[in-house]
Amino acid sequence: MGRIIYTLLLVFSVTLGLHAQQENEVKTDAEKSIWSPTMKAAIEKATTENKPILIYFTGSDWCGPCINLDKNLFHTEKFEEFATENLALYTADFPRNRDLVSKENRKINKELIHRYDQSSFPTIILVDAKGEVLGRKNGAYLPEYYFPFFEKIVSQYK
């Protein structure tokens, strides 16, 4: 009887330890994200680091071109290196599942969509820290077509 209890405790301890390790790994990945969690954080980063802000208007759970752009542009090593060096990033997401975006961000995103007269997805707008538009790309293109656009905006900004 004692061996059974000991074995169950051992299995439980190992399982709990693995679960805690996985949670720590998820937190570490979230901390490494190059995307600002709020527009306010993106503005602060843009101000302190003298960078333009890339606002990505998307419907992350329903817009096919948005999902494709996210996968083939924003999650590439080339983009991550470029953005880390040159941009502050914010995603203005309009998913069908409203639980994917905080109530605060939904409010800000709605304000952004009106401020920038945004009506199609995906759209990328680059702005300065004061919110003045530096450039805009509506629709989805091949990922390599975005880099000359980004580079031109960044070079003019500095």
Automatic annotation (TrEMBL):
Presence of keyword Signal: yes
Signal peptide coordinates: 1-20
Keywords: Signal
InterPro entries to which the protein is assigned, alphabetical: AGR/TXD, Thioredoxin-like_sf, Thioredoxin_domain
Residues annotated as domain Thioredoxin: 14-158
Record flagged with keyword Signal: yes
CDD domains the UniProt entry points to: TRX_family
Protein name: Thioredoxin domain-containing protein
Species annotation: Tenacibaculum jejuense
Lineage per the UniProt record: Bacteria, Pseudomonadati, Bacteroidota, Flavobacteriia, Flavobacteriales
